[in-house]
Amino acid sequence: MSIQLNRKTKETDIRLQLDVDGNRQVSVRTGLAFFDHMLEQLAFHAGWNLTIDATGDIDVDDHHMIEDVAIVIGDALNQVRQARPGLARYGQRLLPMDETLVLCAVDLSGRPAAVIDLPFKRDAIANIATEMWPHFFKTLAIRGQFALHIKTEYFENHHHLIEAAFKALARALREALSVQTSEVTSTKGVL
Question: What is the arithmetic mean of pLDDT over 166-179?
């Protein structure tokens, strides 16, 4: 399923193309290299085709770009969620990356929630404020209308921590978005 979205504000201009049934064709340009790297990991490990072309006031700080990209990806995922009544709905992944271990679980229920445990011990990673990573995940879950839990079991390297979180999320979403049945995966009859 392919989604195209645009979001233009006074702070950012974002164009997104997402196909969750893709073959890992990924092109991301936000002007924040480490953020691009994380989004590439998300798309690759979820098996998506993803194109993001974004410009914005990154000379001010990283907040607007990271938040607005999360909004656009979340909106796209919500469209996919609503269009797939037989999706698996739940997904989880315990993911190691060298000395780091992160757990991610999602429920594509239509009820947003986010519990994010990323115990950073630094203020920034690659010039991006560490407070922006939980904010990205929370914004993604709210706009995507799903429950998201990320728990750090242990870590030493901050790069590995955030990359493991993105990869675990990717694998959990890949599982949750897979079509399992022709029926809605809820006893309520709706998600």
Answer: 98
SS3 at position 71:
helix
| Residue-wise pLDDT tens digits, 120-167 | 999 999 999 999 999 999 999 999 999 999 999 999 999 999 999 999
Distance CA 39, CA 167 (A): 9
* DSSP classification of residue 188: T
Domain that holds residue 116: 2-177
Instruction: Indicate whether 171 belongs to any domain.
Output: yes
- Cα distances (angstroms) measured from residue 61 to each of 53, 125, 128, 135: 18, 14, 8, 14
Domain count within the chain: 1
Instruction: Let me know if residue 65 belongs to a domain.
Output: yes
pLDDT digits (tens, 9 = 90+) for 20-77: 999 999 999 999 999 999 999 999 999 999 999 999 999 999 999 999 999 999 999 9
CB atoms within 10 A of CB 166: 27
CB 91 within 8 A of CB 173: yes
Residue 108: inside a domain, yes or no? yes
Distance in angstroms (rounded) separating the CA atoms of residues 137 and 74 = 9
CA-wise closest residue to 135 among 79, 75, 64, 80: 64
CATH number of the domain bearing residue 82? 3.30.230.40
Query: What single-letter amino acid sits at 169?
Result: L
Instruction: Specify if 190 maps to a domain.
Output: no
pTM of the model: 0.95
A 10 A CB-CB count for 129 gives: 16
